[in-house]
Amino acid sequence: MSRAALVAALLLSGLLGSAQAGTYRVQAGDTLWGIARAHSISVTALLDLNRGRSATIRPGDTLRVPDRNTPTVRAAAFTPPQDTDRVFQQGQAVYYGGRFTPQTNLTAAHLTLPFGTWVRVTHTRTGRSVDVMINDRGPFGIQSRVIDLSTEAARALGIISEGVAPVTLSILSRP
């Protein structure tokens, strides 16, 4: 299949919605992150497939998930849910290396957000963004600094050489 044909097929399946999606029944102990990982998409993409639903899931809920028999569109190709456009906080991001978690390398530290919260961090000058999971506390000392990013997250934002960058934070999901 040519690249143009593949792009057309992906756009058509995105317009049809359920043509690319299967269903998954939420089990006790499931998390959005775990379901997204099992279906090789991001939490953002999972929420996008389930527009109109809250980020809270309960056992027995049915979620739309990508069909394993069709090519998967990477999370960057999906439009974020409408509520992620609201800015939660503005300030500076720094990177500190991060605290290891077996779930993801894209982690961050925040002073008040609950552990397990997923946040979209957007570099205000470049427009680049990355989704990170809060798993540590910080930054401490300088009030303008609102988030400490893992090395991988800082690399995705393009701030490794800067060290400090102006950002906005938008909450994607809470635990």
UniProtKB/TrEMBL annotation:
SUPFAM superfamilies: Barwin-like endoglucanases, LysM domain. The keyword Signal applies. Keywords: Cell wall biogenesis/degradation, Lyase, Signal. It holds the Pfam family DPBB_1. Residues 22-65 form the LysM domain. InterPro entries: LysM (IPR018392), LysM_dom_sf (IPR036779), RlpA (IPR034718), RlpA-like_DPBB (IPR009009), RlpA-like_sf (IPR036908), RplA (IPR012997). Residues 1-21 form the signal peptide. Its EC number is 4.2.2.-. HAMAP family: RlpA. NCBIfam families: rlpA. Lytic transglycosylase with a strong preference for naked glycan strands that lack stem peptides. Belongs to the RlpA family. This is Probable endolytic peptidoglycan transglycosylase RlpA. It comes from Deinococcus sedimenti. The gene is rlpA.
